[in-house]
Amino acid sequence: MSTPTHTNPTQKTPVVSFVGATGPALRTGDAAFDAQIERSLTAAMRGSADLGEVAATVARITPGDLGSWRAEWCATADQVRGEGDASLAAGHRVSARRCFLRAAEYFRQAFFFNRTDIARQDLQDDYAAHVSAFRAAVPLLGHPVETMEIEQDGVVATGYLLRPDGEDTPRPTVIVPAGYDSTAEAGYLDNAVGALEYGMNCLLVEGPGQGGVLYVRGLPLRPDYETVLRPVVDWLVERPGIDPTSLVLFGRSFAGYLAPRGATAEPRIAAVVCDPGQYDFGAAIRARLGDAAWARLQDHDPALEADLAGLMADPQRANDFRCRLATHGVTTLTDYFRSLATFSLDGLADRITCPLLATDPEGDFASLGQIDPLVAAVRGPVTRRRFTAAEGAAGHCEGLGQFRLERVAYDWITDTLGRAS
């Protein structure tokens, strides 16, 4: 999500193994697969997954078999999408909405490990099915939803603006950039449901390297998120029901970098949440590779690629890297590391003068070595919150502790905006 690979085999977080008296466990024993299954467990909290369907799907998956992963999630997604269509045709809107949201989550799972080549047809098919299922649910959500499509000054951004109701009374708006491997559609269950429950608007945003801007338009990730954010805010403040003085950037996973980067040059942002806080990927890469390899990387040593081949020895890890390469629009590890190293707030973070909340979940690989320099560099007031395994909120982006995160984040947002007004 926020580092060269999305898993960390040394991460010490609680093992989740829900086993029913007559049902299968909600895990495969494959660390990478189980990390993603956990995302569907949190989706179930939002009505976007069914624990029984997830367990039945997991039971059919062969651990470590990427083809099995895709095939079984597609099978479940196709079945649930068909049931949603049947319910809608019969006038059963609640059942249809539930089915469509679950199908969207299952299709997202289907292509998660299948993003090594954005042109491959199965990725394109599964991504299109993911979007189609979510958009089938949109008229049934009970909230106003407006699609955003921007192409301005070389910037392409898409997404959805959701509001709690149709009233035009100005409200605070949470702007949520997608993460490294996320989509705006997946942002509904990850972020929008919570914002709407707290009475706020939510704008889910995909920029270069994310969702359809990557898979359909082919535009890779870029470090200067302030350039992406500017036309997005221009578009947003023209919508009804938006309080232009109460715009909050809420960046999760890789967007824990994108959000503060956007705030460095966007004075209309009133507050920023980084979950987790991130600062300089170049420093993270240097710490991982060592000074000697880092110097060779900067010198474009042609022999370094072969010397890094060991990083691709494990098939799952190699797949993770290839997904990242595709996101950055490069074909080699060395080009990937050089690209990722340009994603930095070093020398820029002192331009952030609005209040900032930086989370630091225990065991989250994305925040290792990143929190301290971030909070030290920002000039605005900073709140730092450590989440722990003891409170059930360890791991990447608090793992299964999503309500604990939201209590902290949205209470902080409400109090911060209240003080500002």
From TrEMBL:
Pfam family, one: FrsA-like
SUPFAM superfamilies: alpha/beta-Hydrolases
Cell membrane as UniProt keyword: no
Keyword flag Methyltransferase: no
Transmembrane segments: none
Keywords: Hydrolase
Family the entry assigns: Belongs to the AB hydrolase superfamily.
Protein name: Alpha/beta hydrolase family protein DUF1100
Organism of derivation: Actinomycetospora succinea
High-level lineage: Bacteria, Bacillati, Actinomycetota, Actinomycetes, Pseudonocardiales
